[in-house]
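quick one, 440 residues, struct below
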Amino acid sequence: MAAFEIPENPAYTENIRKFETSDPGHADVFNPVVQALVNNNTYLKLKAEKQERKLAWFCVCGSRKADVAKTVDLEGFRLFDGVRAAVYFTWGNTAENITLNINGTGAYPVKYKNAPLPAGFIQAEWAVEVVYHAGCWRVVGDLAERRAQELAERIDGMTPSDIGALSASGNAASASKWNTARKINGMSIDGTADRTNYGVCSTSGSTAAKTVSCTGFHLVTGAEITVKFNHTNTALNPTLSVNGTGAKAVYYKGVALPSGHIVSNGTYTFRYNGTQWEFVGDLTQEQVDKLDAEVSRLRGEVSNLKTEIGELKVILSSILEKMDISIYNGMLWTYYGSDSIRKASSYVTYAKCAIVQVESNAVYKVVTHRTDYKTSGVFDVLEAVSNNSGSSEEYSAVQSPLVGIEGTNTYTFRTQSTTKYLLINSGGLDFNIEVYRLKI
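---
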């Protein structure tokens, strides 16, 4: 029996046909509706799986700080290229060349900028985000925060004389150098006015060329600007011009900044590399928020789809009437010719048959269940019709013989105007036979 096709790349549709009381009870009516539901269910399943692969796992590592092999138990975790994990280290780390093994998926080295993680980098009760790639776990981000902490520890308690500071009445020999304005992070500094690397962009979201004003700004390599955007960017390949210094492309991780990543009322920092503006930092949290919203939406759609499928099952069950049938062990009919069947003179061992009285010109569904596969098994659906010759009862085949049927199979058809009985043969005793009448 043919099954509904599970498409590889299904399209989602919101147009699901509603059944009318005038519809014929035919597979051509029901199959397109069920196929659309199957497509929607497959689409949502693939969508949810795709979104799930982008989310980061959170886990706790209880390995001691001197242990080289760090292990984590995380139920349901799967290892694949690009999977992320936020690992909370209870004890920190003092070992060299540590490895990380999550959920028994294998011990892989932990690296920072393609080098083994320095001993002492991980402190107790730290959460470190890592991503699996090319056979190792790579730390996400940089060591700036860690280095700042080390510097703070070094200067804690130092006196002005320790760093060669001048007394309150002293003068710096190099003070005259500031008579000429200097550019720091792109800002002209001479001590005559306040300067901030900040501006507000009011350019329309659909306009790619973004502009912002910032007093004292000069476009030099390394210049930095922090911008608040009043509108979400929807344009492709956006550019940024600060203080009329020229439209320069905005990039994120080596590619043009995707549309939608700059959101309304969002504040972002950019640094000029001599050719283009580079987005500073990471958009991971923003992307996670979008994914959370999308997953919530998809869950709602799945819930609605389940409700629709349940309603469809109720509709189908209300229009099917199960028939009382007589089932016998031993086949009662055999073939004579290509489409005529007569009653056999004796039973056939290891076979089963059923008889049910039916109405003419009505729609019936025959369901068979088979639990054992046998190449010799044959299944026939037959109709009793008038014999033009008048010599004996004759039967015409509704369903051609099928060999080696296994599992559940369904056959739907309309009886002839002369049909009296429905006769069902099977080539094995392991068949269970059910007959339903479509009430339309």
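The mean pLDDT is 79.
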